[in-house]
TrEMBL record:
GO terms for cellular component: ribosome. Transmembrane segments: none annotated. It comes from the Bacteria. PROSITE patterns: RIBOSOMAL_L24. It comes from Paenalkalicoccus suaedae. One of its GO terms (molecular function) is structural constituent of ribosome. The lineage of its organism: Bacteria, Bacillati, Bacillota, Bacilli, Bacillales. GO terms for biological process: translation. This is DUF2187 domain-containing protein. Coiled coil: none annotated.
C-alpha cells in the first residue's frame, strides 16, 4: 500500500516564504494550492514593475501565517 503524503493546509492568499531556489528568502502570496505544489506571486516587483509568479513544491516554502 502506498504511503500517503501529508499535505499542508494552505489556501489562496496565504503568505509564504520561499526556502529554496532562485527566490530563496523572498516572501510571496499563494495564488492556488495543488496536490504536490502551490503557485505563488512574489511580493517584490521586477525592474519592469511586474510581480514574478512561479510554482513551488511543498518542501520549498514555509507558511508564515494563515489569512482569515
Amino acid at each position: 500500500m502506498a504511503e500517503e503524503q501529508e499535505q499542508p493546509l494552505i489556501a489562496s492568499g496565504d503568505p509564504v516564504i520561499v526556502l529554496e531556489g532562485e527566490y530563496k528568502g523572498k516572501t510571496a502570496t499563494v495564488i492556488a494550492p495543488y496536490t504536490n505544489s502551490i503557485s505563488i506571486e512574489l511580493d517584490d516587483r521586477d525592474e519592469d514593475g511586474t510581480k514574478p509568479r512561479t510554482v513551488l513544491r511543498h518542501s520549498e516554502y514555509e507558511l508564515l501565517e494563515k489569512s482569515e
